[in-house]
Amino acid sequence: MAYSFAEFATLNSMMYVSGRKKYTIIAFCLLLVLFFQSMPAGVRQTFGNEPCAYVYAGGFPIGLVIKPKGVIVVGAAPVETELGNVLVKTPFMSGDIIENINGTAVNTAEDIRAVLSEVPDMTAQVRVRRGTSVLEMDVSLIKEDLTGEKRLGLQIRENVAGVGTVTYVKQDGSFGCLGHPIGLESGGPVPLSDGASFVCKIMGVNKGLRGKAGELKGAFASSTANGSLYKNCQSGVYGKFDDFKGGELIEVAHRKSIAVGKATILATIGDKTEEYGIEIIKTAAQNSASDKSMIVRVTDKRLIGITGGIVQGMSGSPILQNGKLIGAITHVFISDPTKGYGIYADWMLEN
After folding, report:
1. Per-residue model confidence as pLDDT tens digits over 298-315
2. CA end-to-end span of the chain, whole Å?
3. SS3 of residue 184 by DSSP
4. CB 187 within 8 A of CB 30
């Protein structure tokens, strides 16, 4: 088939453009491969059901202190008045957070004392956070006989402290633990305004029994914080260590790759972190984060002999399967301490 010079020139130009596009695409693909290979393992992303991150597995205890914006109501407290010891009926509920009184923010017991000393009469307007609701209350005050000071008649606390287990630590020192929130008596997470983590030691164990949850007895090993907290939510407590040196990195498995069957957990029961055998009984198909993603059973006779199974303080213990991090222990079944719930690890890594 013959072509005119004009036709041949046009065809040749089209072939040249097509070839140039081909080499451009090849070069782009090579650059893309080099880019992903040069990324640190801890942040490299893959697709589908493959691992999405590399982290350091936890399994060691951590002390946590969470400070909300305001003070937390524990309950009513008696006040010694000229009429005797009086326990008044209060509009407050356990777990309420008092944010301000007469428009002045309060974060400590001393703040409350100072604000009430300036109240001109025996009534104060108190702003309270109850769950997701914010309430404005007119509250009658009580005068203490000995000091003459005005009181709310409440027992309060300024923060919430507890012990849990670290699930993972990223290469930048940020970590996730517990797998569930630190909550208030009224339900729901403590709203975090400030918080810190502390080195913690396990001092003993109260063994779990049917009908009664056991616990790890932990104590803060230092009064100096080793990190800060930035989030307390449905899938756990999150923060960043000031200085953390990890060991070997481990892959995080996608939740769809988790299978019913044998697995292990990392937990610290005494002086060291050890691996214990468990069985994954059931997994749940989930489209949103939940701290009850799977049901597990402890099969390791050593762990059952010491703790009875899962106990309070083990929340956050990493769950491993096929050498990968797949989740964390979150809850124990009161009816059977060898069984409990776990959360998928990729839900935790979203935070």
Report:
1. 999 999 999 999 999 999
2. 65
3. coil
4. no
